[in-house]
Amino acid sequence: MKKAIFLERDGILNLARVDKQAQIGPMTLEEFEVNPAAIPVCEHLKAAGFLVIATTNQPGISRGTLTRRELDRMHTLLREHVPLDDLLVCPHDVDDGCSCRKPQPGLLMEAAFKFHIDLERSFVISDKWQDAKAARAVGCTSMLLQSPWIGSGHHDFVLSSLPAITGKILQLQARHLAA
Q: How far apart are CA 50 and CA 118, in angstroms?
């Protein structure tokens, strides 16, 4: 079985704006900016044998404030810069009750089924508590980037930078291989 790195899109793979102490994802291609710090992280983890999969909640699709075409344009740009194996989207709003909207683990389970991923040997990288909760539900290790959005719930590791997260993942993988 394969192992994977699941990366939150907004705030990890692309830069997100902050407005009134809330993180705001881009709504147009012009607002979308790939996070340059994420590129070498993804390249390094992919070279270490991980599948690299982006996950994202995009309720703007359901609300009608974001078109699928504009989202696809942003994701095309992201794929041009970041070596992704897949990019999974939940288009639902908070009240839709779906199983794919994080903190529900549906996107992780979808990827596990599609790629035959061993979730217990996989990692979730994010700056938000919702991803840590989804990770815990399926046995992944959560690696959170220090931010105002990590919450007070369970998270396995909170680190100060994406390179620090990469180093910790590689350290944990080496321990697992040595065991």
A: 11
